[in-house]
Design goal:
The chain is mainly β. The chain is 10% helix and 37% strand. It has one domain (2-79). A five-stranded antiparallel sheet has the order 3-4-5-6-7, with no helix packed on it. Strands 1-2 form a two-stranded antiparallel sheet.
């Protein structure tokens, strides 16, 4: 994740494909993808029902050959970049 141009590190545990659990905030984070497979939105949900969504302000063309439905962790393995 990034806050502007700065990295914002958070350890997330994958629970299902593009869905992760963030222990430090006790939140579930789901990444939504567009038809080309790139992540377009991130939705945070807490046990009390509150949620917060973030839309990408700039969609860049992916440098890897990804297909819709591939998990973020698989893309991480292919590109060797931190999540």
């Amino acid at each position: 994740m990034r806050w502007g141009q700065d990295p914002f590190w958070r350890d997330m545990v994958m629970t299902d494909g593009d869905t992760f659990f963030l222990r430090s905030d006790y939140a579930t984070i789901h990444f939504e993808r567009g038809p080309e497979g790139a992540v377009r939105r991130m939705i945070w949900t807490w046990p009390g029902g509150a949620h917060l969504s973030f839309d990408k302000d700039q969609i860049l063309e992916s440098k890897c050959a990804c297909r819709a439905g591939e998990s973020v962790a698989r893309l991480h393995e292919q590109t060797r970049r931190p999540l």
